[in-house]
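Friendly challenge for the regulars: who can give me the structure tokens for this chain first? No prize, just bragging rights.
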Amino acid sequence: MPCVNCREMNNNICMQRCVPPVEAMTQHLSTVLPASKMVELRKESELLIAAVYKQATNPS
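First reply, four minutes later:
Bragging rights claimed.
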């Protein structure tokens, strides 16, 4: 898994490594799920990525 050590890495490297697998997974899911489900899923994943990125770039 490319994203396991995000906290220990430089944030930019972390995001570069995390985003492509997410894109690949999205591509795969779009071939097996109906479009309406994909829209829903994409919104959720974007929120999740944003939350993870925010936490990675602004650790409490």
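Residues 7 and 13 are 11 Å apart (CA to CA). The radius of gyration is 13 Å. Your move, everyone else.
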